[in-house]
Amino acid sequence: MALLDRAIVRLLPAVPKPVVQRLSSRYIAGPTLDDATRVVRKLNAKGKLATIDVLGEDVTNPDEARAIAGQYHDVLARVDEQGLDANVSLKLTGLGLELDYDLCRENLEAVVGDAAARGNFVRIDMEDASTTDRTLQLYRQLHAAGHDNLGVVLQAYLRRTLTDLPGLDNVRLCKGIYIEPPEIAFREFDAVRANFVRCLEALVEQRAYVGIATHDEHLIGEGLRIVREAGIDRDRYEFQMLLGVRPDRADELVADGHRLRVYVPYGSHWYEYSVRRLQENPKMAGQVASDIVGRVLGR
Q1: Could you say which of 5, 53, 164, 172 is catalytic?
Q2: Cα–Cα–Cα angle for 12, 91, 165, nearest 5°?
Q3: Is 125 known to be catalytic?
Q4: pTM for the whole structure
């Protein structure tokens, strides 16, 4: 199967853009903020929360970084105006992390301040391992400065993650998608799962608010076990899933009284995002292809 997944990835650049758009439409709200808010309203109607992400990490100059930050201000204003149950999730490279640290901090502080004024929340996404130290540094600096409406993401497949947990009080924990060398990342499926469980147990023990971000049924079960055995209130954790992935399971979690948040990406950079994500994770490419074939055969 791994060989087939990699073969699919190699073919992606040759796939016509409209086909890629059709393949990715289930997982991306669309190119506009109107698309994102339409999806969020539907999710809210089903008792689900949302986090909105503006696509576009590959900025090349400060004006582009400020433009991405401006889109987040637009998102926060729209969420506020329409009374949506949604926060925002952002990538620091989109705010200029690779251009200038101070520029990135300036953009991030502006978005976080806007969110605080509206009673909303900002989640800093984690990217590849080259950004981990700077991401955690920015999070800790802003948190120390009094910005408590701010959380961060940690990836269980990184060997360092367990040691990064102390002092963090709001974390989305996921497996991780980027391809990293074995010296810094677990490669074996069971090893990643095991570290996810260890990290989740540590977060619960230190009384952090935790977003359990997984579609893995084993880890969903472990998450349910851990929060049940710890006896923590249901407003102290949530499950998180990607748009278009396992919506029926998400419905079940909501029906059982658990908070469930769906990651809703949108933006004009949908093509770059789709191809890059599939190239970063060949297994995901195979899963998407399998899903599409299944839907075609189902019809």
Answers
A1: 172
A2: 115
A3: yes
A4: 0.89
What is the enclosing helix (H) or strand (E) of 196?
helix 189-205
Q: Are 173 and 192 in contact (CB under 8 A)?
A: no
Q: Is 172 a catalytic residue?
A: yes
Residue 174, token pair as written in the block: 């996921």
User: Per the structure block, which two tokens stand in for 77?
Assistant: 């204003």
Say what the pLDDT of residue 26 is.
78
- Beta 122-124 vs 209-213: how paired, if at all? unpaired
DSSP label at residue 221: H
Structure-block tokens of residue 211? 């977003």
User: Among the options 114, 125, 193, 261, which is catalytic?
Assistant: 125
Helix (H) or strand (E) segment spanning residue 105: helix 101-117
Amino acid at 121: F
Give the whole-angstrom CA distance, residue 27 versus residue 33: 15
pLDDT at position 11 is 62
Helix then strand then coil, in percent of the chain rounded to 5, is: 55, 15, 30
Low-confidence spans in the chain with pLDDT less than 50: 1, 299
* Calpha distance 283→37 (Å, rounded): 30
